[in-house]
Amino acid sequence: xxxxxxxxxxxxxxxxxxxxxxxxxxxxxxxxxxxxxxxxxxxxxxxxxxxxxxxxxxxxxxxxxxxxxxxxxxxxxxxxxxxxxxxxxxxxxxxxxxxxxxxxxxxxxxxxxxxxxxxxxxxxxxxxxxxxxxxxxxxxxxxxxxxxxxxxxxxxxxxxxxxxxxxxxxxxxxxxxxxx
Length: 180
Description:
Helix 3 runs parallel beside helix 4 (about 105-130) and helix 4 runs parallel beside helix 5. The longest helix has 26 residues, at about 105-130. This protein has helices spanning about 20-30, 40-55, 70-80, 105-130, 150-170; strands at about 10, 35, 60, 85-90, 140, 175. It is of the alpha/beta class and about 180 residues long. It has a single domain, classed as Rossmann fold (3-Layer(aba) Sandwich), CATH 3.40.50.720. The chain is built from five helices and six strands; from the N terminus they run βαβαβαβαβαβ.
């Protein structure tokens, strides 16, 4: 399939393994140049090296995008390595938490930070560095946590609704893409 992404720069968070690495491989097959990122440096370096041996133009930068300064450093690393970012794939977050009756305010704060706030943070950083007043992005935001985790499910769906709202208010490049 030709998605007309040849030569585009894709920044993919959470890309050292799993869905993030599979996404990186798919984008590489479309001709994208890649900036990989994950919290753990060693698996990230191994993923980048494996892609590089296949001829992919790839850079890697370890970062925990739940930390604003690390998110900013990641975006700057992509801009330094490739001159900009064309596609942003937010592939971090996760489950955890509890059923509503068993949850605490801290459970909600943690889940919202992990699943929604980091997405908004990366979109803002991307938009500023891409020269857009608001950020056109593609996000991978639709994974559903295990049943019984109302907190994680609600915060993950906040990502999806945020991306849809961005599209509806005029960012034609923004929207959720859901695997499976």
